[in-house]
Amino acid sequence: MGRIADIRCSADVWRELRRRARRFGTTTPCYESVRKLVIAERERRARLLATIATVLEVAAARGRVLPEQVEWVYRRRLAVSRTKRDLGEHQPP
Q1: Whether 9 contacts 17, CB under 8 Å
Q2: Which of the four, 7, 39, 44, 68, has the lowest number of CB atoms within 10 Å?
Q3: Average pLDDT in the 71-79 region?
Q4: CA atoms of 8 and 10, how far apart (whole Å)
Q5: Helices (H), 1-93
Q6: What is the pLDDT of residues 21-62, one digit of tens each?
């Protein structure tokens, strides 16, 4: 049993969880709970990618990035990562 890798659609995740719950003979979580968890996981993945991209960009700059610029680089990378994951710009910081 592995993770559900594709989390683009909350309904697909919920349907897969229903199938797995039936297989294990347990209850199925409600759709609203699954939707909230999928949104949180998308945000977590976007932040992780933004952090990695920020570290790589700062390391590649070889000292040309001031410490106060790191947050700006991170926020820019986070916006790009959220856009790629269809999270929009209005997510919590």
Answers
A1: no
A2: 68
A3: 92
A4: 7
A5: 10-24, 31-61, 67-84
A6: 999 999 999 999 999 999 999 999 999 999 999 999 888 887
3-state secondary structure of 9: coil
Q: Tell me which residue has tokens 């992780």.
A: 48
Q: Please state the φ and ψ torsions of residue 17, each to the nearest 5 degrees.
A: -65, -35
CA distance 71 to 79: 12
pLDDT of residue 90: 47
Phi, psi of 87 (to 5 degrees): -95, -15
Cβ neighbourhood burial of 41 (10 Å; 0-12, 13-18, 19+) = middle
Burial class (CB in 10 A: 0-12, 13-18, 19+), 89: exposed
Residue with tokens 């986070």: 78
